[in-house]
Every structure is written in structure tokens, then in C-alpha cells.
Design brief:
- The structure is a single chain.
- The protein has 230 residues and is an alpha+beta fold.
- It has three domains: 4-34, no CATH class; 54-121; 141-220, no CATH class.
- The chain is built from eight helices and four strands.
- The strands form two sheets. Strands 1-2 form a two-stranded antiparallel sheet. Strands 3-4 form a two-stranded antiparallel sheet.
- InterPro entries: HNHc_6.
Length: 230
């Protein structure tokens, strides 16, 4: 992992995001993954440097309990396993969720993302951690769509369009990147349409405005369409 320092710079009425790398990037690798040495894409987020929250600790251990019930694996072993995975993912950075931790909210969120990724990938049922999941965050909704898992019950799901597609319109001719979607099984999809979005959101404590997915994710989950980038 290459470390960097990023700052906002204003010049001639425009704001630029300037990233200073701690070492020269491997241009051969850049060319391999992007097809060019001149332009490539980066993911970044503004770090929340506040101390990791007790709620994050409770969610972490609730999710570990779910995995423990599913795999019959001791909690201490799972904790060490995910701490090690975090260390590898962050190129050696340590993490702690104790009361005296120096880890940040962003650090804890990254650890939780690794655990949630694992659970979706291996279809681990969300039980004790269900009510604590940050379902007001786009990441959880994205994972549900990416793995086609119902955001309510965890069963196999369909991709539901929040922005209704007109009757008779061919879905393969639609650019789905411009529409909001959510992942719900047929039973909960029917309930959503029966009682309406506000009542459904209040009953299950989930957002119902959906999210937008990128072309790669839409193609990965098999949602055919007429994408502007093709």
C-alpha cells in the first residue's frame, strides 16, 4: 500500500484535490490496470479522526457472534483473524476497539467493512448484529445489491427499481446507472408495494430511497441495460 497526503488547493476560482505520494508509483502497474500511464482513477474518503465509538465495538462483536454461531469458531480466534486481516489490508497498521483505543472512527469502519464483506461473501446469516447494522449507510445497501441479498431477511433477492420503469419499456434499453435501486426478496418486495415505502421503512428501520450502482457492479449482478459508457 502506498501512503499519501492529500490537500485541497484553490486556484483561479477552482478547487483541486492534490495528492502527494511518499514514493514514485509503479507506472508499469498503473498501465496494466488502467491501460495508460497518463490517467487512472482513485478512491478516497475524508477520514473521521474521532476516537472509535462504543457503538462500533458493539456492532463488531455482535457480528463476530453471528459468525461464531455459523462456523462454531471461538470469538477470540475470529477477533484475531479480522484484526490480522485489517493489519494486512492497511499495510501493517494496528487497530483496537478497547475503551482506551487510539484508533479512529474511520479505522473502525474499515474493520467493520472487512467483517461485513466476509459475511456477505460466505452468506453468513445476520442475527445478533442485524439491528445494529448501519443500514442508513450506502455501503450496506451496496453490499446487498452486489451479492443480491435481501436487505431485510438476507435471502436471495431481486433488484428493485425505486425509480419506476414505465410499463412496456424494455429494461435492457435502460441505463440503470441513472436509476436508484435496492435489493429485496420477492416476499418483501410484495410487502413494500402493498403497504407503501413510508410504512415499510418505519417497520423495518431501513432507508427506501435506494442507491445508484456503477456499470461494473450492474453487469456483475447480471442487470442488462443500455449503458452510456458502453
Amino acid at each position: 500500500m502506498q501512503r499519501s497526503r492529500t490537500q485541497l488547493v484553490e486556484s483561479e476560482g477552482k478547487i483541486y484535490l492534490v495528492t502527494e505520494l511518499d514514493q514514485k508509483p509503479n507506472l508499469d502497474h498503473v498501465e496494466t490496470v488502467s491501460g495508460t500511464r497518463d490517467q487512472f482513477y482513485m478512491d478516497w474518503e475524508i477520514a473521521d479522526t474521532r476516537k472509535a465509538r462504543p457503538q462500533q465495538r458493539r456492532l463488531f462483536f455482535a457480528l463476530l457472534n453471528d459468525i461464531m454461531d455459523w462456523s462454531v469458531t471461538p470469538q477470540d480466534y475470529l477477533k484475531s483473524l479480522f484484526y490480522l486481516q485489517y493489519q494486512i489490508y492497511t499495510d501493517g497498521k494496528q487497530i483496537s476497539l478497547s475503551d482506551v483505543t487510539t484508533s479512529s472512527v474511520s479505522d473502525a469502519n474499515q474493520l467493520l467493512d472487512l467483517v461485513i464483506d466476509f459475511m456477505f461473501e460466505w452468506r453468513v446469516p445476520f442475527k445478533k448484529g442485524y439491528e445494529l447494522l448501519p443500514r442508513d449507510q450506502e455501503y450496506y445497501l451496496f453490499e446487498c445489491c452486489r451479492h443480491r441479498v435481501c436487505m431485510i431477511c438476507g435471502n436471495r433477492a431481486d433488484i428493485h427499481h425505486v425509480d419506476v420503469i414505465g410499463a412496456g419499456m424494455n429494461r435492457t434499453h435502460v441505463d440503470h446507472t441513472k436509476r436508484h435501486v435496492m435489493s429485496v426478496c420477492r416476499r418483501h418486495h410484495s410487502e413494500l408495494e402493498q403497504i407503501g415505502a413510508p410504512a415499510f421503512s418505519a417497520k423495518y428501520h431501513v432507508p427506501v430511497d435506494g442507491i445508484k450502482l456503477d456499470v461494473e457492479t450492474l453487469k456483475r449482478i447480471g442487470l442488462k441495460g443500455n449503458y452510456s459508457s458502453d
